[in-house]
Here is the input.
Amino acid sequence: MLMVSEPPRCERVLELLEWFDMPECYVLILERPACCMDLFEYRRNGSLPEHLAQVIMWQVVLAARHCRDRGVLHRDIKEQNLLVSFDTLEVKLIDFGCGDLLKSTPYRRFAGTILYAPPEWIEEGKYHGCAATVWSLGVLLFVLVCGELPFWNEREIAAGHLIFKAGVSMACRHLIRRCLAKDPNKRPSLEMILEHNWFSEILRN
Here is the structure.
């Protein structure tokens, strides 16, 4: 959190204001956003209209990119770790308890939420940070527009079959399929996600 909170900071990541090293614990003084709830409560167990999902996902990808650029791997990007202002729709990424320093070599220990784990972890017991982040973004986007998780166990994650809710646009489906490619080398970068045509010109600007 020190690394992601150094200036210039990102408004999409919760700021660490101060911290104290106590004998038996650390005390963190964090930014406290007003008028917000976590994304799981905001969604209220239903899907979101795509225009709202666009606004939210754009900010989440920016937060993930900021973490990457600061050399940090969050490892648990999901609805419960995203705060949404119900007045402005501003999003903030929280809870770095599963985080680690970003490295180019594979991780061989999983931390986070298993239903957001990529298939390479299920099948090989290892994963690369950036590719796993993109996978988790694909899971999150599926949840926002379909109202439920794409996979409910490790077998389904490994199989990778997607069943979309009726009415999800072809552009959105294309982006989700790319993020949830079984081959991690075929997943897009965070920049490629931001450039995808599912996002409107208004969001890009």
User: Anything to note?
Assistant: Residues 50-69 form the longest helix (20 residues). The chain has one domain: 35-199. The mean pLDDT is 95. The domain at 35-199 is CATH 1.10.510.10 (Transferase(Phosphotransferase); domain 1).
